[in-house]
């Protein structure tokens, strides 16, 4: 009988997600240090982040297609070995090209690990706890933003950026050992061909769920990616105070991720609509109080809760509708999140450089999630009409 609480094995997946999430985001805090050390421009250093993201979006699903046939515990362990190796290469890199290649290799790990790990997490618990198990695993990603990124940036800027990657590799090694010691081998399922796995994407609700992820999540990165100019230019935060603000938002991300898992277990259908609505409402509140120092901090904390409350319902919806190929579907959703991150970055950048300026970011950030809510309602109405037609 599966446990009625979150077991240790899911916490091990949380640790793994923390290590991987730190590797993804910590480069943002090391850009100028990297650029100076490797004698490249800040723009070239930024390409390191882009390369990592594109490896997730494009390479993740392709790699998962091949890995889905193997036993899942060993796949997770193998991916963590690849993660450790990639970060060691990053730490030893003395040229821009080697660093770029190493970040691509590290990025290839993230999509399959999160996608396959989410499937394993749901199978380690009773069905009634599946949403909380997924939320618990993705809590590692939120903790990476709260703890891993600031600490990793501090280490890199004091002791050298190479040291940060050694620390990340060490985190990966701890996670690898824990995976091998605590997670049992998963039952071998009948191998599906690549063609059979891809057939899952003929299922309309799965494609709709992936589209909802992109639409609803774009609003998060539009604001979060450009919260610094909004805080400094409009709310009056200093660079030092910005660190405190980001920590507060990060706490909100952790809280929202936890509550989102609970709501997904109670009623996935309602949760999938509730959290985008709350995120849009929080963005409006941020826009209304953006010129008030303390109210802005409180509003962005609420924004953090509302935003990451979306993560478990969005991931659970994709796993539900992609049950014919859950590993590939889960990985495709990670790609959808990162596609939304890229769109949010573009939209936020265009906004802050336009006549609207930083003050317009919260308002523009609401547009795509509102379209996502409309799409959810349209998709549900369409599904209801089809059911009625069948009857």
TrEMBL record:
<feature type="transmembrane region" description="Helical">
    <location>
        <begin position="104"/>
        <end position="126"/>
    </location>
</feature>
<feature type="transmembrane region" description="Helical">
    <location>
        <begin position="12"/>
        <end position="36"/>
    </location>
</feature>
<feature type="transmembrane region" description="Helical">
    <location>
        <begin position="165"/>
        <end position="183"/>
    </location>
</feature>
<feature type="domain" description="Major facilitator superfamily (MFS) profile">
    <location>
        <begin position="9"/>
        <end position="384"/>
    </location>
</feature>
<keyword id="KW-1133">Transmembrane helix</keyword>
<dbReference type="InterPro" id="IPR050189">
    <property type="entry name" value="MFS_Efflux_Transporters"/>
</dbReference>
<dbReference type="GO" id="GO:0022857">
    <property type="term" value="F:transmembrane transporter activity"/>
</dbReference>
<feature type="transmembrane region" description="Helical">
    <location>
        <begin position="138"/>
        <end position="159"/>
    </location>
</feature>
<dbReference type="InterPro" id="IPR036259">
    <property type="entry name" value="MFS_trans_sf"/>
</dbReference>
<feature type="transmembrane region" description="Helical">
    <location>
        <begin position="271"/>
        <end position="288"/>
    </location>
</feature>
<keyword id="KW-0812">Transmembrane</keyword>
<dbReference type="InterPro" id="IPR020846">
    <property type="entry name" value="MFS_dom"/>
</dbReference>
<keyword id="KW-0472">Membrane</keyword>
<dbReference type="InterPro" id="IPR011701">
    <property type="entry name" value="MFS"/>
</dbReference>
<feature type="transmembrane region" description="Helical">
    <location>
        <begin position="48"/>
        <end position="68"/>
    </location>
</feature>
<protein>
    <submittedName>
        <fullName>MFS transporter</fullName>
    </submittedName>
</protein>
<feature type="transmembrane region" description="Helical">
    <location>
        <begin position="204"/>
        <end position="227"/>
    </location>
</feature>
<dbReference type="GO" id="GO:0005886">
    <property type="term" value="C:plasma membrane"/>
</dbReference>
<dbReference type="Pfam" id="PF07690">
    <property type="entry name" value="MFS_1"/>
</dbReference>
<feature type="transmembrane region" description="Helical">
    <location>
        <begin position="358"/>
        <end position="378"/>
    </location>
</feature>
<keyword id="KW-1003">Cell membrane</keyword>
<feature type="transmembrane region" description="Helical">
    <location>
        <begin position="75"/>
        <end position="98"/>
    </location>
</feature>
<feature type="transmembrane region" description="Helical">
    <location>
        <begin position="239"/>
        <end position="259"/>
    </location>
</feature>
């Amino acid at each position: 009988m599966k446990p009625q609480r979150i077991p240790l094995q899911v916490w091990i997946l949380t640790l793994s997600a923390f290590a991987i999430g730190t590797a993804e985001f910590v480069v943002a805090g090391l850009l100028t240090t990297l650029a100076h050390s490797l004698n490249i421009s800040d723009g070239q250093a930024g390409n390191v982040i882009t390369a990592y993201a594109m490896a997730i979006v494009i390479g993740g699903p392709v790699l998962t297609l091949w890995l889905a046939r193997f036993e899942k515990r060993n796949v997770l362990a193998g991916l963590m070995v690849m993660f450790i190796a990639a970060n060691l290469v990053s730490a030893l890199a003395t040229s821009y090209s080697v660093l770029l290649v190493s970040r691509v290799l590290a990025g290839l790990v993230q999509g399959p690990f999160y996608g396959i790990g989410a499937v394993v997490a749901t199978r380690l618990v009773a069905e009634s706890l599946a949403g909380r198990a997924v939320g618990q695993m993705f809590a590692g990603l939120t903790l990476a933003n709260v703890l891993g990124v600031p600490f990793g940036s501090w280490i890199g800027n004091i002791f050298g950026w190479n040291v940060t990657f050694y620390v990340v590799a060490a985190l990966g090694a701890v996670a690898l050992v824990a995976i091998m010691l605590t997670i049992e081998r998963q039952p071998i399922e009948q191998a599906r061909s690549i063609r059979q796995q891809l057939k899952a994407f003929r299922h309309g609700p799965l494609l709709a769920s992936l589209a909802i992820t992109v639409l609803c999540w774009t609003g998060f990165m539009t604001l979060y990616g450009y919260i610094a100019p909004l805080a400094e230019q409009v709310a009056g935060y200093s660079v030092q105070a910005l660190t405190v603000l980001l920590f507060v938002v990060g706490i909100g991300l952790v809280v929202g991720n936890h509550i989102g898992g609970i709501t997904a277990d109670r009623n996935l259908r309602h949760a999938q609509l509730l959290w985008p609505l709350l995120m849009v409402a929080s963005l409006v509140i941020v826009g209304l109080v953006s010129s008030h120092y303390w109210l802005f901090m409180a509003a962005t904390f609420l924004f953090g809760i509302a935003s990451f409350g979306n993560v478990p319902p969005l991931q659970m919806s994709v796993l539900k509708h992609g049950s014919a190929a859950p590993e590939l579907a889960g990985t495709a959703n990670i790609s959808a999140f990162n596609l939304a991150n890229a769109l949010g970055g573009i939209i936020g950048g265009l906004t802050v450089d336009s006549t609207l300026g930083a003050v317009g970011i919260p308002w523009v950030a609401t547009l795509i999630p509102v379209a996502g809510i409309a799409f959810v309602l349209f998709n549900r109405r369409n599904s209801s009409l089809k059911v009625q037609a069948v009857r």
